[in-house]
Amino acid sequence: MNTDRRGLFAGSAAVAAALALPAAAQQAAAPPAPAQAPGFYRFKLGGFTVTTVHDGFFRRPVEGFVRGVPTAEVQALLAEAFLPGDQLTIPFTITFVETPRGLYVFDAGTGAQMAPTAGQMAANMRAAGLDPARVTGVIVSHFHGDHITGLTTAQNERAFPNAEIIVPAAEWAWWSDDANAARSPEGQRPNFANTARRFGPYQGRIRQVRDGEEVAPGIRAVSAHGHTPGHTVYHVADGADQMMFLADLTNRPEIGARRPDWQIVFDFDGEAAAATRRRVFDRVASERMRVTGYHYMFPSTGFIAREGQGFRFVPADWSSQV
Ligand SMILES: [Zn+2]
User: Fold this and answer.
1) Which of 32, 87, 93, 251 has the most beta carbons within 10 angstroms of its beta carbon?
2) What is the mean pLDDT of residues 257-276?
3) What strand order describes the sheet that includes 87-99?
4) How far apart are CA 53 and CA 96, in angstroms?
5) Which pTM was predicted?
């Protein structure tokens, strides 16, 4: 017994000696720091390929997020969705549509210039094989900073060097005219300078579009004013398949779909935003149309169902096959 144990110890020592690797090799063998898989997800829409690309998130207090509603009521709704009641996490997800006539993207992300927890769009695009130089058109929903800042780099160079920029005419009219600053909520006034800065390098490549217009083959503008003066969602169709890019029709659907009449702090015209939410949700729910949203939980695609006095977001079935 004793001999056996000694033999065992001797054996262990030999193993330990064998494992005395050079320091560099030991470091290489250490497990990597935990990280997520790249944040992109694909699905087919007719002959088009849609890719949602995650840009990270931003956190803000729940308090003050919904206008005129007691915080406890907002927290109760968040608890129903198993979301914390102190801080609200607002994800950013950008929708790409690959068509036979070009690669289009809805909005431009934060460009890694807005929050330390956001700015992963470029890395996730690389992981998804989406080259910014190949983007045919950036189709913009509205001019809030989290949607247009990524149009240019920190040095204000074009992030999509070969793209045409497609913008809602009403949105352009409002934010490109400083005379409207006094008639804008104070918190939204920085949008005037940011609009001038981000669109500047694209001069001569900006196209204004109107409600109902086909802005690219299979992609149509649908006015959804209220969140901003020209906020626009986009209908995408190929053959019998269709979807709606909902942009900021709501912020997180756990709040905005369930209580479409609640007005959030970022809504420019709260009443118009609420009426627009009901109108667009009525359509996508009736037509059982697929949707993507900018502030929805990744991969940010699913359906809108009617529930009670409001609606409910139903995530699409995840598939390993595109
Ligand atoms: Zn937004």
Assistant:
1) 93
2) 97
3) 40-45, 48-61, 87-99, 102-106, 135-139, 164-168, 206-209
4) 8
5) 0.90
- What are the φ/ψ torsions at residue 16 (nearest 5 degrees)? -60, -40
CA 178 to chain centre: 28
Strand partners, 216: 219
Which residue has tokens 């990270």? 56
Write out the two tokens for 265.
């702090």
pLDDT per residue as tens digits for the range 293-314: 999 999 999 999 999 999 999 9
CA distances, 236 to each of 135, 141, 216, 246, 311 (Å): 17, 14, 9, 11, 22
Q: State which residues have CB under 5 angstroms from ligand 1, the bound ion.
A: 146, 248
User: What number is the average pLDDT over the span 226-255?
Assistant: 98
Distance 49 CA to ligand 1 centre (A): 24
The pLDDT assigned to 31 comes to 85
Amino acid at 280: V
Distance 19 CA to ligand 1 centre (A): 53
Q: How far is the CA of 48 from the centre of ligand 1 (A)?
A: 25
Residues 9, 124: Cα–Cα separation, whole Å: 50
Q: Which domains does the chain have, with CATH numbers?
A: 39-315 (3.60.15.10)
Query: What span, in angstroms and rounded, lies between the C-alpha atoms of 264 and 251?
Result: 8
pLDDT digits (tens, 9 = 90+) for 19-53: 555 555 556 678 888 889 999 999 999 999 999 99
Scanning the structure block, which residue is given the tokens 């005129």?
68
Query: What spacing in Å lies between the alpha carbon of 305 and ligand 1's midpoint?
Result: 22
